[in-house]
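Next comes a single protein record:
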Amino acid sequence: MSATLPTAEAATRPAGRRPLAALRGFWTRPVPLARIAVFRTIAYLFVPVDVFLTTAWVSAHADVPTAYYQPLVVGQLLPLPTPTPTVVFVVQWALVACALAAATGRAPRLLGTAVFLLYFEWMVIAMSYGKVDHDRIAYLVALAVLPTIGVARWRDRRSSEAAGWAMAAVFVTVMLTYFLAAWAKVRFGGWDWATGSTITRAVIRRGTALSDWTLDVPGLLTAAQWGMLVVEFAAPLMLLVRSDRARMALVVFLLGFHLMVFGGLRIIFLPHCVAILSILPWERAPEALAAVRSRRGRSAGRTGVVPAAAPPV
């Protein structure tokens, strides 16, 4: 009977503070440092992939006359250099070098901060010529918060509230990317966006064998646009995910959606997909790898050559 009665502290605690306490718990829920170590390696190793493959066109801005450079608002507020050929070359190679060094886990605050600042400048160079992508913000936030954690090892089972705050910041930004995408659709296109021909035009321009057939099904792409709006506006429900299994299911769903879009329209948001990976419980990866190695060792021992028995006397 006494277990059901509220304590004196709970009875005197103002009811209005309970949601705030839950919110604080979301932002400071401890996370194993091993999760940070693995995700940090993935995030930093993606930098050269992004520089030389995903956004290789950014380096071409070195040959564009500086008169065409119209910096973003942040580029106007900060004293950032005009992207001359020398500036673009230095930023590109300094970014790649710092990212590869940061992926080793050494000097995480110094190298991590350098990677964030250089990648920030790389994005200003990329998006100051009339085209601004929305698939970079969550990855940029990940690069910003990773240096705040400090040293983390792959097998470090200690938990850290700083690590929890960093991963929560990336998680919230991933969610806002979807929610604000829906808001932008309605803000600029109105609710008529859902009944328009946005996806139809995309299939005509960039369609593949996996999506061309949808043009022959009346109403299918319109229904898909309505479904996209509903799912994106419901993105805040992602924050209710708690268990590791639910997190893995969420990541599979999100990555599956992006793979489906890539298969049908040849559009992929790789930096955003890297940010999505921060949701996974990466602290299990080292143990899983060790288990695979030990299993291989046992199987190799069973299939190995057994010494012959000594001949009878």
Q: What stands out?
A: Confidence is low (pLDDT under 50) at residues 1-17, 309-313. The chain has 13 helices and two strands.
